[in-house]
Amino acid sequence: MANPKQPLLNPALILSAVISMLLTVLVLEWYGWIAHPDSETSTTVETLKLVRPGTDEPVKMAKKIDWEAVCIQGYLALKHLRKQGAPLLVVDSRNRGVRCERSGR
Questions:
Q1: What is the distance, to the nearest Å, from the Cα of residue 6 to the centroid of all Cα atoms in its chain?
Q2: What is the CA 18 to chain-centroid distance, rounded?
Q3: What is the value of pTM for the model shown?
Q4: Is residue 89 a contact partner of residue 57, using CB atoms and an 8 Å limit?
Q5: How far apart are CA 8 and CA 39, in angstroms?
């Protein structure tokens, strides 16, 4: 049972936790384990677009939070969370579907 006169959160314990986190970040930075990308070293690997199956027209989305990525028959697609309808297929610059694997849940 806790002593009623002793505080529940010990200030020395909090201070040691903060200091250990700071030292951990400093050591990781010193040895180069934290990567800091900049605009000179970053490049676009591939530009993807969305198409409706059966058409070649790209689809523009207003809100990205309303969509969920799903793997359908080995291809990456986006499904709308609130509206019913066919999911949109994610394709690369050559209009090829982006492959995916189903992860075991």
A1: 42
A2: 27
A3: 0.44
A4: no
A5: 47
